[in-house]
Design goal:
eight-stranded parallel barrel; two-stranded antiparallel sheet; TIM Barrel
């Protein structure tokens, strides 16, 4: 498993950053802010940013600034701040390219059963974070994790991100966290994607960011190993998933509350 800064603090760890890399300057500013916050709170931190968005509702949606350009931004974040980075991959042909630049390869929820993608990710030797499909039970994720392990890689993380609840909503079943932890891997709660409202008639995914704190607190209370939060300086102008992202200015207060909950549990 990757080395995480601040790990001796026995805290939850954090995967956070913008939904997609919109440019180098914005990524560096966001990373710098979060590094300062997490260093203060002793939270192990992984910078998150997709180098390309392959799953969009509409053809005219923003997909990225170019694969190599965005991956080099992720590499610069790692080199500048000394923190691990994570990005989504979408096809087996992308794994080796992405693995050159980032520390964790993330399997999107819709693709969590794609055997060729999982095996290719495993064979890079990188840590693989598999998001639970919105259509799967938590126990079914054992088979996704097994594909990574049987391909020779024990560095697996699993992420809960809500379950389909009708056409336009998701619900978080917090039993998923201890159930997936029983497999022996760290389990992360994806707070912001759990609050998406997909399949809107506008073709743009909606969200309920006002419930970010509620979902996050509950996740820490039931023992999630990590939390995943997409954040942006101004979600209203974000090029992807702005409707469910956290305003960056609100992150420190939220994380402070989560640390207090974790401390109470540990005591």
């Amino acid at each position: 498993m990757i080395e995480l800064k601040n790990n001796p603090a026995n805290n939850f760890f954090l995967l956070a950053g913008p939904c997609v890399i919109e440019g180098e300057e914005m990524a560096m500013r966001i990373a710098e802010r979060i590094v300062k916050i997490t260093d203060t709170l002793q939270i192990p931190y992984v910078f998150k940013g997709s180098y390309r968005k392959a799953n969009r509702s509409r053809l005219d949606s923003f997909t990225g600034i170019g694969d190599e350009k965005a991956l080099k931004v992720l590499q610069k974040v790692h080199q500048t701040f000394g923190i691990p980075t994570v990005t989504d991959i979408h096809a087996a042909t992308e794994t080796d390219m992405a693995a050159e630049y980032v520390d964790i390869l993330q399997i999107p929820a819709f693709l969590c059963r794609q055997t060729d993608l999982l095996v290719a990710a495993a064979k890079t030797g990188k840590t693989v974070n598999i998001k639970k499909g919105q259509f799967l039970s938590p126990m079914a994720m054992q088979f996704a994790a097994d594909k990574i392990v049987e391909a020779g890689n024990n560095n697996v993380m699993l992420t809960e991100r809500g379950t389909t609840f009708g056409y336009q909503d998701l619900v978080v079943d917090y039993r998923s966290i201890p159930e997936m932890q029983s497999f022996g891997f760290p389990v992360i709660l994806d707070v912001t994607h759990s609050l998406q409202q997909p399949n809107q008639t506008s073709g743009v995914t909606g969200g309920m960011p006002q419930l970010i704190e509620t979902i996050a607190k509950a996740g820490i209370a039931v023992g999630a190993d990590g939390v995943f939060i997409e954040t942006h300086e101004n979600p209203a102008v974000a090029k992807s998933d702005g409707a469910n992202m956290l305003q960056l200015d609100l992150l420190e207060e939220l994380l402070t509350k989560l640390v207090r909950i974790r401390e109470a549990i540990n005591s």
